[in-house]
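Batch manifest, entry 17 of 40.
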Amino acid sequence: MYAIKRELKLNNKETSLMRGIAGFRRFVYNFGLEMVIASWSFEGISLSDSKRIDTIKQLFTQVVMKMPEHGWMKRYPSTVYQSAFIDLKKAFKRWREGLSNFPKKKTKKRGDSFTVYKTSGVYPQKGKPAIPFTKRVVIKAGKKILLTGLKEFRLKERINFTCSSQTFTVSRTADKWFVSFVLDAEKVPPIYHPIERVGVDLGVKTLATVSDGTCYAMPVSNQRAKTKLSKLQWRNRNKALGSKRLGIKASNNARGYYVKLARYYARIGNIRRDTIVKMTTDLSRSAYCIRIEDLNVLGMMGNHKLAAAVSDNCFYEVRRQLIYKQSHYATKVELVDRWFPSSKTCSCCGHVQDMKLSDRVFDCQKCDNVMDRDLNAAINLANAPKEKVRLARA
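Output type: structure tokens
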């Protein structure tokens, strides 16, 4: 399945509509979260989280929405609050399974988002039972898209083909709004890769070094954007940004500062994401077997001297993208044991010697082999013994 994401071209009236719908979804999500927590204090009620949320949803539909002070909710599609309860169910399920932390309340600062979808229906037949079917929205090629229950919106980038989808998610990053939807399509993976197997060493100085000599680096624009961000924060260090706890409202200048701050963070994230997507795609197209080290990213982030470099190079994101692209490009990603001394072993004679992190060149004391430290580690990863390698899974 594929997902398409496009930026919406909105005027002021449409932007206000989007913010209103996002606020409605945020209100419903926070209401459901508070009610679930409050229901735990009642004795004699033994219901699962899913059934509790279903009961709260009925209460919201039959009581809360019919209150006079909540008449504004009728201006927005019903699928918005229904999807909010679905998201709340998923959040509690992930928390119960230990995949995420306890659900938190939604805030404006963490970004606005909501989901609309086309509801299912039934096809009546004479003398026979009705056939259920899923309604879908046809998206025509061009720069316009119709969102279910709302209206037709303009896009900044055209869609090149006619397609269909059922669910549309609208999200905000900084002051830009995006729409994303999923297509029921399968990618035919390639049947030939020029390289059989490569080792990829994720480094601090460079983004990644491949055993065939290829080197990937984070672009200079990333560091420039970080420098501009730090200057912006330093210039506004004494600005009164407002505080709900203290009852201080943020000024117009403070709101403008928040918008600028979000734009800089979004730019840094876009640069990193673009670089990593291109790198992982290039590796997946060229090599069949990709070997990377099973790094302890959380432990590395605990070192304050390495934390910035590790977060910049997005070690875990590189691994995640390589794994999910296995089915797209017919590759095989393997993880080498984290205790395998790839950086301390000579790739020519196998001699193991101590290496400091500051030593960027590997100089073998046995066979006088001299090469770049990261390249030597990448070759060792590619040639690692089978007992030190396991298949990577999502």
